[in-house]
Amino acid sequence: MPSPWLDTVPIWLIFVLTIGILLLATEFGFQAGRQWQHRVPEKDTAIGPMVAATLGLVGFLLAFMTSFAADRFNNRRGLVLEEANAIQTAYLRAGYLPEPYAAESQDLLKAYLDVRAARPQPETLDETIARSEEIQSELWQRAEAMVEQTGGSDVYALYVESINQVIEIHAQRVIAGVYARVPPALVLGLYAFSLVGMFILGFGNSYDGRRSAIALCALVLVFGSVLYLIVDLDRSGEGLFQVSYQPLVMLQQRLNP
After folding, report:
1. Is 171 exposed, middle or buried, given 0-12, 13-18 or 19+ CB atoms closer than 10 A?
2. Strand (E) or helix (H) holding 159
3. Which has the closest alpha carbon to 6: 186, 151, 162, 157?
4. Contacts from 43-46 at CB under 8 Å and sequence distance 24+?
5. Worst-scoring range by mean pLDDT, 26-30, 60-64, 150-154, 163-167?
């Protein structure tokens, strides 16, 4: 499965690096401003509005991207609940099948639930997806054999429909978790805009000849925390914000008392 290059960086290191590069951008801006004043002694009165406008634009972009990442996080979380409901429905409807299809199908659904309830690590994601699709294929083959043997009925059709829903939600979760991510180019662009904003902030501070370390650190911490939040929400498998697998775990406990 494709993996954004940013996923190879530990989530805690992203926060540290973000704060570090924002502070460096501010320092570079301050030093560049001092050098510029040596060449152009006249004070540039437009620098203040430029700083305010740039930081305002960066703040707007951060808010937009946070909402963008949060929507995708909530979608992945909702799909977990939908999958738990779909598996439970298929398991209950499998009880109406004739033997041996009823017992075999319910055992396969339990095995499928065990796979889906275990949070996969990045290195085991491909294996988890492959195993899930393997069990789906076995369930479908048994459903086809059962329909061919019995001729089918409305009750059996409901079971087949529930298996089809399980397969569809699996595909939706793969797309939402692997493909429907915040594009790395947008994350890079957001970091670039933030660095430019911090650079201009440092440049503007150089005209005053002094800086408030507390205010500067607080501003960098706020911007860095929001950038980290966007990356954290986009991963959803590690960090502070993780998609809860509790609906699947609770169903697993009910089916395996």
Report:
1. exposed
2. helix 154-174
3. 186
4. 43/207, 44/207
5. 150-154
